[in-house]
Amino acid sequence: MKIKATKLFLTSFIFVLSARAEDGLESKLQTAFVYQFTNYIEWPKDTANKDIFYIGVCGHSSLIKPLEELAKSKTVKGVKIIVRTQTLADPIWENHVLIIDEKDSVEAIVKKVRGYPVLTISKGEGLSQKGVVVNFFVDDGKLRFEINRKMAEAQKLSISSQLLKLARIIE
Question: Whole-prediction pTM value?
Answer without folding.
Answer: 0.86
